[in-house]
Amino acid sequence: MAIISQNIFQAAVFFYAASSVPAIMQKKNAALFFLGIGLAANLLACIGKYYHAWPMLPLYTGMYLLPFCLSMILFLTKLKNEQWSAMLPVLICLVSLAALFFPNDHYLPFIMSKTIFSYIFFISGIIGRSFFFIAALKALQVLIAANKQTKENAQGRDAGTVEFVVWGFVFWTISMFAGGIWSYLGWGSPVVWEDPAIITTMATWFYYICFLHLYLRRVWNLNKRLIFAAAGGILVFIFNCYPEMGIFRMPDLKWLRWLIF
Amino acid sequence: MAKMVNFLKTAWNLAGGINLTIGLLIFLVVDLSAGFICLESNPSIFIPLNDVGLIAWLDTYGINYLQYTAWFFLLLLLLFLLAVNTFVCTTDKVIILFGNRSCYRSQIKFILNFAPHIIHYSFVVILAGYLVSYIFAVNLPANILLPEKSILIPGTEYKIKLNKLNIEYYKGQRLDFFQNRAINPEAEILLTDKNGITIKKTVSVNRPARFKGFSIHLDDFAPKSRTGMQKQKYANLIIHRDPGIHLYFCGMFLFVVGMLMYLYRWYRP
Lengths: 261, 269
Known about the structure:
Chain A is mostly helical. Chain A has ten helices and no strands. Chain B has nine helices and eight strands.
């Protein structure tokens, strides 16, 4: 079952990569078509991983779920404009490649994870992360567009960056609180100082609180706020994705050899 | 007197300023980044923080390993300043909101405008909960119970006895490596108070029992596997008394309520 999930995920990566090519060539429909197949394969691979570990939580599979959440948000929000179709599929492809070549899911599930709060903590955290990445891309997109236009035209447009940050913040907060409840039920304290992830989660939370204050109170100008949101994507990657990645490993592509020969 | 009032007003305004908020939040992110490096390289310094409490930890590990713990001292200071800043700023806004109450035709709109203030106040409540937890919580790890043997909860006259340890082993097909390993351990314990009244409770993984202000968590147990060398049956319990936990959970609940109100206000037609 685990091997089948891994093979399906390899297929998902293939389709994600296939979608990024027409995306760069501005062929929106073809990009969305391949992205849709990749999304379905990614969903199947994630279900397989969950089915395999049930009733426990398959920890360290965040990098597999992340491209799925990014693609899902793309489809749900119907962001089909040209910039999106180029940037987001490329990001989804890169994230899925990172999961494929730097897997960290060889840890066995443990019985402490057998609670609804661990699932809320994990899934909500991934959804939050996805929104932050999309907000960063949105901000980058506006900054690039503003460079091409006159400053007057660019004033006052954030292209919905803050909306994505708000949703990211909501899911991130839910994840943090669910983690706190899980930690209390399992270990007797809402903060367990054994895992450095607690620090990076808090740092990310405070970073986006800062962004929301900058935006809602108009403390900095739009350009600086957008740079702050774009930098958030790098911060989220370093703090929350990089620690979940394992060492470089070549994926086992036996099924591909069997298919070819 | 007038000078004093002016000074207090200036201090109040400074304490609630948005620039201070931004500065503190950026410092917090930088400080936590340093904390991540220190915690990842030396987790053994920070693990006892849960067991011994904040004051004892600061007095021992905190002072003796200052090169690794300095960020934590700074974190406490920054969180304190942020709590003060949040409280002052929010109180100012709430006073203004109440002052403008007559301007609101709709009661719902008036109530929804409290959303960010509920979030801010609940943040302060969460921080207060943490502080109370770390200062006043009693943590008693490693209470090993053998079947039919009772022990005293340290520092009390309450007795705790392991009546039964029911372990359900994994029988499914999906998890090969989990075959015959414990999936659902349940410790049935008998708790006796100082009047000799005994009650029965069940403790399981992620399902603590509550007794006289204590929460009792299952930390470890044996045997974990049905095969191999059979170990003596035991349950290792964490016994915890945390007066801050209700404050913390109350703050969390209010924070979520505030967020939902904010989202409703945001998307309201």
